[in-house]
Every structure is written in structure tokens, then in C-alpha cells.
Amino acid sequence: MKFNTKVIHAGIEPDPTTGAIMTPIYQTSTYVQASPGDHKGYEYARTQNPTRSVLEKNLAALENGADGICFGSGLAAMDAILKMLKSGDEVISTNDLYGGSYRLIKKIFEPFGLKSKFIDMTRIEELEKAISADTKLIWIETPTNPLLSIVDIKAVCDVARARGILTCVDNTFASPYLQTPLDLGADMVLHSATKYLGGHSDLVLGAVVAKTQELADKLHFVQNASGGVCGPMDSFLVLRGIKTLHLRVQRACDNARKIAAFLEDHPKVGRVLHPGLKSHPHHELAARQMKDFGAMVSFDLKDDSIAKANTVLSGTHLFSLAESLGGVESLIGHPSSMTHASIPREDRIKNGLTDSLIRLSVGVEDVDDLIADLAAALDKV
Ligand SMILES: *Cc1c(COP(=O)(O)O)cnc(C)c1O
After folding, report:
1. Which residue in 210, 215, 219, 377 has the most C-beta neighbors within 10 A?
2. Rounded distance between C-alpha atoms, residue 284 and residue 276, angstroms
3. Which residues pair with 296 in a beta bridge?
4. Phi/psi at 26 (nearest 5 deg)?
């Protein structure tokens, strides 16, 4: 089955009792047994829920993995992965990691003895230098946030596999429509389904897809033991969102490409960061690794000031000023005062995260309206 068919059909059967074509929302906490232990495969809803199971099968098919495990949020999914490690183990990750992922490693797991390193993973020699005997997990995020750097998934996974180290790719920014990391050698893929998979900014949910059943079974065990499950209603909404994933992400990519070109030509704009631009340092790698270049665009102003950035941020009407991404509606954000405010300014600037850096999550509106909205806001600068 090809991807555009899988989003609608993979793992999804009409309801056996009624023929309902849409997966029912099984809003139940427990399941009746005929006699002790004689049940239909469902005992208690922390352990299994039929709506959640359908979503897990569908996601496993989209990411070409053995099995999926769905959680209450993207961070709950990451939490379960980190709980497969033990005190003294080390995780290596990228230095412009999603802020919440960084916080989970540093503030929650470090006090339990987990060690961590954050490196520039676009340079494979840095990764090879960083690996120690304790390294048990390499955490990849690509494209990165908000600078939209591209990490070579296959190259990193080759290095990891040769040393018996597990790999997980946070595939939230790309979605499985644009890249399937398990095909490039990763052991696990993580999603904040809150973003592109859900696609309508109306839920919070996370997922892991594992390449092998053995790894998936370990994650199911952690999930049942720790309890970070998602509810049936949210599982249903993600299943519904996924049915249009290919249409939404393709349109958003097409819009982002045009917006990036518009910004690159604008006299008040400084750098434009979008993997689809020839000027992007990892453009060739992105073209090889991804089906298209994604719908995130970051840019800063020639006159790099927070005040000027604020003029743009509060000057748009269609682009709403908000955190998050991946919905049908376009969003605009200011990483240095919003998502990345906890990083000291000096470190931010050193990593290329300038004061005026603005991040766009491009939606599926008419691109002419989106460009006019940005043009009007930039005129006020
Ligand atoms: C939002 C996000 C997360 C966290 O997901 P939640 O669903 O908000 O818990 C993790 N990684 C990336 C790249 C994200 O954008």
C-alpha cells in the first residue's frame, strides 16, 4: 500500500459489531470477562483501548515499523523511552533540541543519574568524539527547531548501530509524509501528534513507533507500568487528522516554499532559514532525505532588534502569535522570548538564535493572502 492510501486504510477496519466505517470512540475503563481471564483481548483501559490500538496500528504502518505505542503527549512518549535506560547510562542529543525534550532530560532524568551530552549533530565527527562506553541512546531531531538544520539520519544511525547504541528520531517537524527514519536505520520514531498528525490544533497526544516488536513490547511494558496513556477521544481525533495528512502537509510545503522565496527577496529581511532554499547549508541533504522541505520557515530582520521583531509579530492578522505548529492555520512565533526563553541570551546568539528571529508554521490557507499578511506586517517595521 502506498502512503496516501495507508493514511486512510492502514490498520482500519469497519467496526465488527455495527459496520460503522469510522473507528468508534471506546469510552470505557474496563471490559467484561465471561469468566476470570476469559476476555476478548481487553482487560483494563490503561493497558489496552480499541480506539488507541487502531491509531497505533495506523502509525506503525505510516512509519514502516513493527508496532506503535500512543501516549498522553509527545513528552510522555519521550519519558517512556528514557525510562528504558538506567542510572549511569548516557543519552547524546542535538544542541538545538526541542526545549521540552531538553528540560525532561536535564531536570527530570539527570537527578536520577542519567547522563547527557548536547552536540552539533550535523557534524558526524562531533558525534563520534562524544560517544562513550556509557552511551545507550542517540536522540535525533531533524529538521531542528527553530534554525531548521538537517541531521543526516542514515549517517548517525550507521555510527550508532556499529556500536550497539539505540537511536530515536523525533519526526514531529517532518511527519511521516516527508521522511520515514526507520527506513534509514533508526530504532524508534517519536511524534508529538499534537502537531502535524493531529493537524487541527485541537488535542495533545504523543506516539512512538518501534522498528522491532521486542522494542515495542518494552515500551508497552513501560507505558502500562507508568501510565502515560492517551484517551480514546484524542486517539479518534488523531486518526481523523491523519486521513488528510498527505494533503495538508503537501499544501503547507508548497505555501512555505513560496513564502521563503518572498522573504528572501524582501529588503528588510536578513537570513531566511528554510531547507528548500538553495542558500540553506543542508539543502542537498534535505533533498535526499525528505520528500519535500517542510512547512516551517524562520527568518530574522536586517535590523536585528526585539522591538522591530515585535512590530512584525503583532502586525500579522492571518498568522496568529502562538506556540506550537503543524495545524491547518498559520502561526508566527518569537523563539527567543517564547519557546527558547530559558536559554541565556549569549548562548542563544552564539547558536544563531538572534533577537529578531521569527518562526513561521505555515498552514494551508491561500498563499497569496499569507504573503500579503507578512508584507503588510513588514511594511510597519
Ligand atoms: C511539541 C513537540 C514536542 C512535545 O510534544 P507534546 O505533545 O507537546 O508533549 C516534542 N518534540 C517536538 C519537535 C515538538 O515540536
Report:
1. 210
2. 9
3. 361
4. -85, 85
Ligand 1 pocket, mutate which of 142, 194, 230 (most atoms under 8 A from CB): 194
For residue 141 the three cell numbers come to 531531531
User: How does pLDDT run across 3-12, given as a tens digit for each residue?
Assistant: 999 999 999 9
**Do 40 and 179 share a structural domain?**
yes
Rg of the chain over CA atoms, in angstroms?
21
φ, ψ (nearest 5 deg) of residue 271: -80, 145
Q: 282 with 346, same domain?
A: yes
Cα 145–149–154 angle (5° rounding)? 115
Domain boundary residue among 211, 242, 273? Answer: 242
Question: Are 60 and 12 within one domain?
Answer: yes
d(Cα 60, Cα 256) in Å, to the nearest integer? Answer: 28
Grid cell for residue 202 = 485541537
Write down the pTM of the prediction. 0.97
Contacts of 174 (CB under 8 A, 6+ apart): 142, 143, 290, 294
Region 105-122: mean pLDDT is 97
